[in-house]
Every structure is written in structure tokens, then in C-alpha cells.
Amino acid sequence: MITAIVLISTDVDRIPEIAEAIAAIEGVSEVYSVTGTYDLVAMVRVRGHEELAEVIPGRLNKVPGVTNTETHIAFRTYSQHDLEAAFSLGLDG
């Protein structure tokens, strides 16, 4: 599974409708409205790099109101939730 974090700039007055349109794209697992330089952050999870091309430049970037994106590919996941699950399974030593 490949995870990409997509930072998205949008037309500010249309953030909710743009976020909903992005969230409806297959491969997008979550969309957050955020403060700072970008307006939205989307988490994209797909099986292969080819699918990233379909989802991000192929669909997400074409949502009306999206003005700019910056994509980061995750190498490894570190999650407190994952650590707690491992310890609850008795994997603590």
C-alpha cells in the first residue's frame, strides 16, 4: 500500500465543496481542512504508483477550485495506534 499526503491550495470561499469532491475520489481516504499555507490535506492510499498518477494529477488536481498541490510519498508509517495494538497482542518483549 502506498500512502501519499497531498497538500492542497483552493479557492478559499469554496473549501467545503472542494473537500467533499476530493473525499469522493476513489483512493482518497481522508481530507482535512487545515490552517497554514495550504487549505486542505488529503490522504491518498493506493496499491501502486500507477494509481497515484490516476488519482492525483488525473482526478484530484482537476477538481474545480483546486489551484495548487504538493504531494509527499510516505516511506514508513509510525502510529501510536499501531504500537498500542502490538502491545495488546503481547508483542512487548
From TrEMBL:
<dbReference type="InterPro" id="IPR011008">
    <property type="entry name" value="Dimeric_a/b-barrel"/>
</dbReference>
<dbReference type="GO" id="GO:0043200">
    <property type="term" value="P:response to amino acid"/>
</dbReference>
<dbReference type="InterPro" id="IPR019887">
    <property type="entry name" value="Tscrpt_reg_AsnC/Lrp_C"/>
</dbReference>
<dbReference type="GO" id="GO:0043565">
    <property type="term" value="F:sequence-specific DNA binding"/>
</dbReference>
<dbReference type="Pfam" id="PF01037">
    <property type="entry name" value="AsnC_trans_reg"/>
</dbReference>
<dbReference type="GO" id="GO:0005829">
    <property type="term" value="C:cytosol"/>
</dbReference>
<feature type="domain" description="Transcription regulator AsnC/Lrp ligand binding">
    <location>
        <begin position="6"/>
        <end position="77"/>
    </location>
</feature>
<protein>
    <recommendedName>
        <fullName>Transcription regulator AsnC/Lrp ligand binding domain-containing protein</fullName>
    </recommendedName>
</protein>
